Recover the amino acids of this structure.
């Protein structure tokens, strides 16, 4: 007889083919255990476990994020979960990352950060939000509290509003005087993958169009460099000479 | 072989009295800001000294008034800059006759762009070329307007005749695709102009023309046009993905309603924009495929 464990996903879905480090905790029926997403889904399909949905997937949390994306910051992606930090006792008023001094303890790359696991809090989208949400809706819809369609609707709103922002980023990239910089903070893995080709294409196009102007600017700079060099050499002859060179 | 995207504009066809070679840019597409350490380009103000070839010239000659350093990078010995993809020219320097060989280039879009016609005005009487203006057996008069393909116009505009007044062979006007009314229309609404009707290689043509002329305004208008249309392209790319899987079931990607007006816009895309559309579409499509794969497993 297999135990029916109440599990929650703990693993970036990108690693689903291989178990992550560490042992699988003992699975005893009424207790919760953190499992990799692939294992949780497997057990779920075999009807041996229920999955506790991550807090950010709750409709209230998603609605909050949609509100932030559309009303509060209509031009920026919603922020990822802030890095865990703690007030420093020695310096009142300052805070440092947990595990601050020893950089080996701080994990900053997205798939392994806390906000990408089952520990992700409500109100922030984890790096793999779209993938996890899609997997859970597809395979564990009965664990989501019966409001799958609401969650699905909210997710589609999010996808659309963020895709629109990604499109607008193209215009920001080409806007003059902004240095062609666009912040991708808080963008999920799926969105990055989908838009990579397009955004790079836009950047390349803008580079080619600006090429002539850029070349002219560089030539001017180089001439000024050369002019300066000649002036320096001409300086031996006297000030008048170098002024002539600069005059060209 | 290392491959670089090299854009060369030169009048190396003439050796006397001025041998001139101008390299406009050496860029590596993957590393656009890298300056190549192993190149230096000179503009020769006169022929190299007897008994030496261009390949033999070194920095030792530099202080002389003979040539001028054009770029920081350096050429050592015979140099071949070869290109594979997205490439403009192959340049070889170092044959005994100071020959610059501008060999073929493999980018089909670049070739097609070079065939675009540019309105040019000849500045000199040219014997035996009257047939270009439908007056065979007569010289081509100075001041005649002839449409020349871009590759030829480019040569003739940059090369000068070597005469006392240093005239160029031809002067050129902007082609109709980049004319004032098109630019004004683009300023008003970039999305409303079917660029393909102007030229299938609109941006390629435009960047070439900007290299040749000092038009500042055109650059910023084009830039605005490109990014505005890019956003629109991305929108359509997602939508088309939804339509193509329509038969299969419920999830049809974007639910943004764009009517049949979209098709007209897509028909007006030039080659650069078509590539961009393809990229955006591929991204959305593979995203959708991944989503579908989750449902199956």
């Amino acid at each position: 007889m297999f135990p029916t464990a109440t599990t929650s996903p703990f693993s970036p879905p990108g690693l689903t083919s291989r178990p992550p480090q560490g042992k699988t905790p003992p699975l005893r029926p009424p207790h919760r255990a953190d499992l990799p997403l692939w294992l949780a889904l497997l057990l779920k399909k075999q009807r041996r476990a229920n999955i506790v949905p991550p807090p950010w997937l709750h409709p209230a949390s998603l609605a909050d994020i949609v509100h932030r994306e559309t009303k509060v910051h209509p031009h920026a992606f919603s922020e990822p979960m802030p890095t865990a930090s703690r007030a420093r006792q020695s310096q009142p008023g300052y805070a440092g990352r947990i595990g601050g001094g020893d950089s080996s303890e701080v994990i900053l790359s997205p798939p392994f950060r806390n906000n990408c696991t089952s520990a992700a809090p409500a109100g922030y989208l984890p790096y793999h939000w779209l993938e996890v949400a899609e997997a859970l809706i597809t395979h564990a819809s009965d664990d989501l509290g019966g409001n799958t369609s609401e969650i699905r609707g909210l997710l589609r709103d999010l996808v659309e509003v963020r895709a629109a922002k990604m499109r607008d980023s193209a215009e920001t990239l080409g806007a003059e005087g902004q240095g062609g910089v666009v912040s991708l903070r808080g963008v999920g893995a799926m969105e990055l993958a989908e838009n990579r080709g397009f955004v790079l294409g836009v950047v390349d196009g803008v580079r080619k169009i600006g090429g002539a102007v850029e070349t002219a600017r560089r030539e001017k700079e180089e001439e000024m460099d050369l002019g300066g060099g000649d002036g320096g050499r001409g300086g031996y002859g006297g000030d008048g000479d170098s002024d002539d060179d600069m005059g060209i | 072989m290392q491959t670089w995207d090299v854009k060369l504009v030169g009048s190396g066809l003439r050796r006397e009295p001025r041998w001139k070679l101008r390299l406009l840019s050496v860029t590596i597409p993957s590393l656009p800001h890298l300056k190549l350490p192993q190149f230096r380009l000179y503009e020769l103000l006169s022929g190299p000294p007897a008994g030496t070839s261009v390949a033999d010239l070194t920095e030792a000659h530099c202080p002389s008034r003979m040539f001028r350093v054009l770029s920081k990078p350096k050429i050592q010995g015979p140099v071949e800059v070869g290109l594979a993809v997205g490439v403009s020219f192959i340049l070889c320097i170092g044959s005994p006759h100071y020959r610059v060989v501008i060999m073929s280039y493999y980018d089909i879009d670049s070739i097609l762009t070079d065939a675009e016609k540019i309105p040019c005005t000849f500045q000199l009487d040219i014997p035996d070329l009257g047939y270009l203006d439908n007056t065979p057996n007569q010289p081509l008069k100075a001041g005649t307007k002839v449409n020349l393909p871009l590759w030829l116009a480019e040569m003739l505009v940059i090369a000068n005749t070597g005469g006392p007044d240093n005239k160029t062979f031809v002067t050129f006007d902007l082609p109709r695709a980049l004319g004032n009314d098109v630019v004004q229309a683009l300023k008003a609404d970039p999305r409303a102009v079917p660029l393909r009707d102007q030229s299938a290689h609109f941006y390629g043509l435009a960047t070439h023309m900007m290299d040749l002329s000092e038009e500042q305004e055109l650059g910023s208008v084009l830039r605005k046009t490109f990014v505005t249309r890019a956003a629109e392209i991305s929108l359509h790319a997602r939508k088309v993905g939804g339509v193509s899987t329509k038969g299969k079931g419920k999830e049809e990607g974007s639910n943004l309603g764009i009517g049949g007006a979209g098709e007209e816009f897509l028909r007006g895309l030039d080659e650069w924009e078509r590539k961009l559309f393809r990229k955006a579409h591929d991204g959305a499509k593979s995203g959708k495929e991944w989503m579908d794969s989750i449902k199956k497993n």
About this structure: The longest helix of chain B spans residues 216-244. Chain B has a mean pLDDT of 63. The radius of gyration of chain B is 24 Å. The first strand of chain B starts at residue 5 and ends at 11.
